[in-house]
Design a protein that fits this description.
This protein is α+β, with helices and mostly antiparallel strands. 17% of the residues lie in helices and 31% in strands. A hairpin with a 5-residue loop joins strand 4 and strand 5. It is globular, with a radius of gyration of 23 Å.
């Protein structure tokens, strides 16, 4: 345990501090603030002068808009870290990042009562955790094999696992399975207003039902319906018992802070920006569509290829962006690269690389 904490990156230690843990010098309260080295941002020249006017307008409008923040290097650590059990002078659990008194046990018990789980003989236990990829403190309330995880900042329901049912017998109908998932979504304190988005048969015994937020957004005078895959609730139903056994909630809310007079970056300009960032001039099929994306740091101004791959935490919001896709068939594989270009600022918001 001691070696694990001593190997955590400075960013992670700064985030979970203050934690008093006598056996590890690296997670004691730090007296000073480390200065973050900022890498110089290379000024890139656009490939076509025709895009300059549009991009200049976008950058001007983006002066007060959200920008990709400096990354947090989380290193080679698990997605969730269990925080040491320690008490501060007020008797509260240290390291949960929360100054508000939240009754996590009460919330969890209310959820079990709502779905009809008998709590007789079940003693709750709270475990404080830190989700490294999301920079999120969370509280897991366990009742034996039943677990309910809540956001430690505001008590938002994140995930849960109930007791598994027997898988013997004939599957229930699809209508009954879907009805169980819908009823569960409506009963529990998830964000409301999501719409049913489909089902994924993850095994012969389980189906995963998706409920997702959509937005009607006006762009250049035309209203488009956008699906945000980062505001989603997934509910797993046992297809034999017809009952819900687990769930997960993803919430990276869309931050659409553009002004009425902001001009969106054109498709052509987005392609040029993405092409310039990748250094691609030909040889690829290129497509671009406006979507809601979760920013990351691939291809961004913060990425320095000389440093090698780094594992960064995600920003806390999703954004409207052009998803520019570059595809090329090679002898053994299909080379595909995605670049996210902010719809209004023109900033590179990350991307993806698939082969």
């Amino acid at each position: 345990m001691n070696k694990f904490w001593e190997n955590l990156s400075d960013d992670i230690l700064d985030t979970v501090s203050p934690i008093k843990y006598d056996n590890s010098k690296n997670i004691r309260i730090k007296a000073g603030v480390q200065k973050r080295r900022r890498k110089a941002v290379t000024v890139r020249v656009l490939l076509a002068a025709a895009a300059m006017a549009v991009i200049s307008i976008a950058c001007y409008a983006a002066i007060e808009s959200w920008r990709l923040p400096p990354p947090k290097d989380i290193g080679d650590v698990p997605p969730v870290i269990e925080l040491p059990e320690d008490k501060n002078e007020n008797g509260d659990t240290a390291g949960d990042g929360n100054d508000v008194d939240i009754d996590f046990v009460g919330i969890a018990e209310g959820i079990l009562d709502t779905i009809g789980v008998d709590r007789d003989g079940l003693t709750p236990k709270i475990t404080m955790e830190y989700a490294t990829q999301y920079s999120r403190h969370q509280a897991k309330v366990s009742f034996g094999d039943i677990n309910i995880t809540l956001d430690a900042q505001d008590g938002t329901l994140i995930s849960g696992e109930l007791l598994r049912e027997s898988s013997d017998g004939e599957p229930v109908s699809e209508d009954k399975s879907l009805a169980a998932a819908k009823e569960f979504y409506e009963k529990l304190p998830f964000a409301k207003g999501y719409v049913y988005n489909g089902v994924n048969p993850i095994s012969p015994e389980y189906k995963l039902y998706s409920f997702i937020r959509t937005y009607d957004i006006e762009i250049d005078g035309s209203v488009t319906n956008f699906v945000n895959p980062y505001e989603e609730v997934r509910i797993a139903v046992n297809t034999v018992s017809g009952k819900v056994e687990s769930w997960n909630s993803f919430y990276f809310p869309l931050l659409d802070d553009h002004k009425d007079n902001d001009v969106p970056v054109s498709k052509e300009a987005a392609v040029l920006l993405a092409s310039d960032r990748l250094g691609i001039t030909d040889g690829y099929e290129i497509s671009a569509e406006p979507e809601i994306v979760l920013p990351n740091y691939i291809y961004s101004d913060y990425q320095d290829e000389s440093d090698g791959y780094k594992n960064y935490a995600y920003p806390s919001v999703s954004r409207l962006a052009w998803t520019v896709v570059f595809s090329k068939d090679n002898e053994l594989f299909k080379d595909r690269k995605k670049v996210y270009v902010d719809l209004y600022t023109g900033q590179i918001l990350g991307g993806d690389q698939m082969k």
